[in-house]
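hey so u asked for the seq, here:
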Amino acid sequence: MGFFRPPDIEKMKARRDIEGLIEALGYRKEERVRKAAVQALGEVGGGSIPLLIHLFRDFERAAGAEAALVQIGAPAAPALLLALDEPDKAVRTGSLSALAQIIYAREDAELCRQAVAPLTACLDDSSPTIRLKAVHALNEVTRVLAADRGLKAKLTARLVERLYDTDEQVRQQASFGLAQLADVGVLNPLIASLKDPQEGVRSNAAWGLGRIGDEEAVLPLLAAISRDPNEGVRQQARAALLAIGAAAARPLAAMLRHNRVEIRSTAAEMLDALGWQPVDDETGAAYWIAKGQYARCAEIGALAVEALLTLLRGPLDDAAAQAVAEGLIKIGAPAVEALLARLPSGQWKSLAVIEVLGRAGDERVVMPLIEMLEDKQQGEVYHRAAAEALVKIGGRHAVQALILALHDQDELSRRIAADALDRLGWQPDKSEAGAWYWIAKGEFERCVKIGAAAVGPLISTLYDRNTFNAEAAAMALGELGDRRAVEALGEVAGFYPAGLFPSTAARALRQIGGKEALAPLLKIVQIANLRAGGEAAQALGEVALQLTAPEALAQAVSALVACLAESEIGQRRPAALALRRLYYSGRLDTQAKQKILAVGDMLDAPHYDYGSEGGTHDDIGIGVEL
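ran it, C-alpha cells below
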C-alpha cells in the first residue's frame, strides 16, 4: 500500500507493524521517515529479519533493509549467513554487506567463527561484487580473530589468494585487509603487490609494509619511491620507510651503493628524514656521492676512493665527471694507486680518468695514457685529452712514450703525439725518431734531409691507409735513392691499382734504379692504369738501360712490347721510345733485337687520334721511327 501522508512510525512500532515499517522504508518524500523506520525495525527485532533479507531484491528499499539488519545486529547474523546460499545475487550482496558491518560493530568472536566457512565459500563466487563483499567481511573477521593464530593463518592465506584476483577492486580490498593485520607473515605478498598495476593496491601494500616494520621491505619501498608513476604511492612508500624507522637505516645505508642513481639519491633523502648522520668511512663516502657532494666525499680521504672510482664506470655528465676527478686528485696517491690497479681491465677509460692520471704526476701512468691515446674506438677529443695528460706529466718517460706513439697506424694519433712533443719542447734530430716526427707532421721533405735513417719509417708509411701519405713517402724514398725501398714499392703498388700510387711508385723506382727495380716495375707495368702506364713504361726503359744480364733485358723488352697493345697513346709512346733506346744501346742480344724489329711497323705507323660520329674515340699508330 502507499502512504498519502507521512506514516506514524511510533504507532507502527507500538503495534509491532513490521509490514508497515518495511513499507515506510520506501517512503521517498522524507528521509527522516525512512531513518525512523530503520530504527524502529531494529528495535522490533527478530520477526522482521526474513522480510528484510527478502527486501534486498527491491532496489529502492534494499539500502533501508540493510541498515535495519545492521541495527538489529547479532540476532540477524544466522539468517544472513544462510542467505549467502541464495541464488539471487542481490540477496547475497546485501547479506554480505550487512554482515561486514555487524561484525565490525559487535566484534563478536563467536559470530566471526560461525561466519568463516560461509564467507570463505563466497571468495570463489563468479561475481566480482560478491568476492569484493566477501573479502571486506573477512577482513573484519580476521581482525577480530587475530588472537586465534591457527584460524588467522587460514584466513590470511585465503586473502592472499585474492591479491591475484582478476578484479582490481577485490585485490585492493584484500591488500587493505592484509595491511591492517601488520603481520610479518604477509610481508612477501605485500612486497609483490608493490608491482600491481592498480595504484590503490600498491598504496595499501606500502602502508602495510610500514605497519609491519621489517627491514626486508626497505629496498622494494625505495624502488617504489624512485619509480612508481603515482605520487600517492610514492608518498605512502616514504611514510612506510619512516614508519620502519631505525630498522630501515642499515638497509638504506647499503642502498647508497646501488647502481641506480635515483635509488642512491632516494636512500640518502630517507636517511636524512630519519636523522641518520654519516661518519667518515666508506658508507659516508657513498652518502656524500648520493648527495652529489663530491668535494665533501673527497675529504674522507683514502676510504672514499672506491666510491669515487665506481662512479667513473657509470654515465656522468661533464660537470659531475669533472667534480669526481677533482675529488680523486685531491685524495692523491691512494686514488692513483687504486686507479692504476684497475686500468688493465680496460673498463676505466674516460676523460675523467685521463684528467686524474694527467694530474697525478706519476710516471707509472705514462703507458696507460699512451694506450688511451692509441685507442681506435675513441675519438679525437679523447685522444687529445690523453696527449694533454702526458704533457702535464712531462719528463723523459712521457717523451719516450710519445715518440713511440709516432709509430701508431692511426694518422690522428701520430699527429696528436707530435703536437704533444712540440709542447714539451722536444726537438727532432736526424734519427728514426726525427723521421717519424716529420711523417706525423706531414713534412716528408724533412725526411729526405735526414737521409738513410728515414728509410725505415718511410717504408712503413708506404702501407699507410691514407694514400697521400703513402705517395709522399714513395716520392721521398725516390729522392733518397735507397735500394732498401725497392721491394716495398713494388708490393704496395698492388694495393692501389686504380689510384695514383703506381705511377708514383714507378717514378721512385726509376730514381732508385738498379737491377733490383726490374721485378717491381714489371709488376707495375701489368697493373698500371692509364695515368700510371706511361710512367711505368718510361721507368722500366730507364732501369733496363742499367741492366747487363740478357735474361733480365729480355724480360724488360717483352714487357715493353706488351705495352704497345694498350689503347692509349700515353701508354704506347713511352714504351716505344724505351724500346728504341734499348735497340740502339748495344746491350741487347740478337733475339731481343729481333723481338723489337718484329713490331717495327707498329712503332713507325703514324699516330692518329680522332673521334667518330657515334662518339667513340679512335687512337691508332705510335709515330716513333725505329
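The longest helix spans residues 89-106. The mean pLDDT is 86.
lmk if thats what u needed
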